[in-house]
């Protein structure tokens, strides 16, 4: 019973947490690259829907509440259980509980009026790595006190599956190509630092492919420690002076919202320029493939452990508890045997002792029979002599 209630439940949640982190981190990173066909990467893994329990006293059992991991934020997901309580038709509170059912101090209020929903209607629950979508009964509004409960990681390990049909769906290539102008004097080389966002609504990438005309597309050094960032129309987006670090030049220019960044290997010569273009030719550089491979080295599980570290810690915990239970079992067996021995000393029956007694009684019976036989023969002899 202890194994079922404690160890088994905890391990199921731990495995589920790892499944969510692997699926989310791999899917999010794959989406930042281009696949074999030159398209942005699609999901490599899929997860089953999170199971939600609702109170039988809710205003309507036809209300629909959906919970899912928020893309790119699975490192915030814990193994806790949560309750979602409506405080009005458009506001709700979320409280957290540990695996033993004790409140863990998590308390988050969400107002659907001010929250910004995603394209498909989900609203972020800050700090939990989760999104919620509320669809009320057409005839009844959500009411104060409507209660829903869910454990995001429970059963998630059993619900993970591969979504990619072929290896061509791995998006190994970067969507940006960088190059140095052929007229540059210095040996400084530009390199792609990172890709963080390819959404046309929030980055410099255009809808359907390519770069937006207002996105950073070239960098020109006017001095060794000064450069200009220029868009596709030749407009200067930013000027940076006093440069000492030639890494992440767009971030230094306040243009990190572009969704990509570049670095220069050494100090350029005034007049040197560098270009950034969309990878429309599908050039294979394995940039995103290396990023996918590097996920195993990042602390993504609750922001403190890598895939391997989290799994190893879980296996170690199982082994430690199993060994402890084995020692407890052996100790209990010893105590049981000692108790049985003490009982037998007082009221128990020794089979060896009883066997000896039976042999002794058998021998006594045989001896007594011989005495009776001898007496009978003697008496018979006396009778015969009198006759």
UniProtKB/TrEMBL annotation:
It comes from the Bacteria. InterPro entries: Flg_bb/hook_C_dom, FlgK, FlgK_helical. Residues 1-45 form the Flagellar hook-associated protein FlgK helical domain. Pfam families: Flg_bbr_C (PF06429), FlgK_D1 (PF22638). Residues 345-384 form the Flagellar basal-body/hook protein C-terminal domain. It is found in: Bacterial flagellum; Secreted. The keyword Secreted applies. Keywords: Bacterial flagellum, Secreted. Belongs to the flagella basal body rod proteins family. This is Flagellar hook-associated protein 1. It comes from Marinomonas phaeophyticola. The lineage of its organism: Bacteria, Pseudomonadati, Pseudomonadota, Gammaproteobacteria, Oceanospirillales.
